[in-house]
Amino acid sequence: QQLLNEVEAFKADNLQQVEEFRIKLLGKKGSITQLFAEFKNVPVEQKKEIGQKINVLKDAVQDKISSIKEVLENKDEEGEKVDITRPGTQNEIGTRHPISLVKNEMISIFKKLGFSVAEGPEIEDDWHVFGALNFPPEHPARDMQDTFFIEKNPDILLRTHTSSIQVRTMQTQKPPIRVVCPGRVFRNEAISARAHCIFHQIEGLYIDENVSFADLKQTLLYFAKELFGENVKIRLRPSYFPFTEPSAEMDVSCTICGGKGCNVCKHTGWLEIMGCGMVDPNVLEACGIDSKKYSGYAFGMGLERIAMLKYEIRDLRLYFENDVRFLKQFKSAL
Ligand code: PHE
User: Which of 83, 131, 174, 297 could form a disulfide with 216 if both were Cys (CB 3.0 to 4.6 A apart)?
Assistant: First the structure.
């Protein structure tokens, strides 16, 4: 019993002490080995009881040795002991950027309508960004103040809208065409709470026989309801784009006040979210599509604007600052 207490109380700081402990008890001359040697002298009637006790003792020593070793061997690279019972440090899990969130949501809405996703280069030539889209040679959008040029003559530039992807799609696919084109675009604008020189767009294009303005309107209404909820209203106002005819701008009833009037909609009850229209026959022809047989609609919108409405973000610059206090707020939106 005394030996058993000693075994229970044993502590060691290193493996050598453990080894000494083992030799002292279980080695050739160890106390327990000796007990086994003396066992033959035990009277027969006590053999059972004493034998059991010695075995318990031996097991206790072996358990003790292996548990101490387990702790001692849990060391880090510097040989420092590691407390394996300490709670671990949690891995920080990132969050999706609000722009990615709305982009993914919008893509999934259009996928339900049969649209697929097309992408294209950020560095483009004049033809894909302007020429094929019916911009006259002196159109102000080509102006140095608006477009970032990389080279002049021939003009290489950063795309100012994702309509260039639609041009590339029309060149390579035959109708029916149904694509949405998300991407980053660049315009030489002063950075403020409401404007940035880099932003994101998603544009859509549908070309087939007998596509009408009614198809466009119904698609956009469905889209607005999926994105902002069943009660949202849409309004189309006449507008102008070189690549669509007729053209319109689409407003949705203010998603903040529900159309009643607030600061965000400047008390009009409406928010402008996109441009759209019927693809100009000149554009179809420029891209090798028979404009007598086919017609189509196109639309385009800025993702920053939509995310602002959805998440009530008041300053565009927040999207680009990578401040984790801002980004972390979208954890639940994953
Ligand atoms: N490309 C236009 C823009 O960048 C948006 C648009 C796309 C308008 C398609 C009409 C049709 O502002």
Answer: 297
- For ligand 1, the distance from its centroid to the CA atom of residue 26, given in whole angstroms, is 86
Q: How many CA atoms lie within 13 A of 105 on its CB side?
A: 19
Name the stretches of the chain with pLDDT < 70.
1, 75-79, 144-145, 332-334
The Cα-based distances of 214 to 166, 217, 219, 296 in angstroms read 21, 5, 9, 11
Instruction: Judge if pTM exceeds 0.90.
Output: no
The C-alpha angle 111, 116, 118, rounded to 5 degrees, equals 135
ipTM > 0.95? yes
Q: Are 216 and 246 in contact (CB under 8 A)?
A: no
- Atom 10 of ligand 1, nearest CA residue: 276
Element containing residue 305 per DSSP (H, E): helix 303-311
Helix (H, G, I), strand (E, B) or coil at 332: helix
Helices (H), 120-173: 126-129, 163-172
Q: Find where tokens 């022809």 sit.
A: 285
Q: CA 201, 202, 208 angle in degrees (round to 5)? A: 145
**Does 245 carry a binding-site annotation?**
yes
Q: How far apart are the CA of 264 and the centre of ligand 1, in A?
A: 23
Residue nearest to atom 4 of ligand 1 (CA): 161
**Tokens encoding 298:** 């196109």
pLDDT in tens, 77-119: 666 777 778 888 888 778 889 999 999 999 999 999 999 999 9
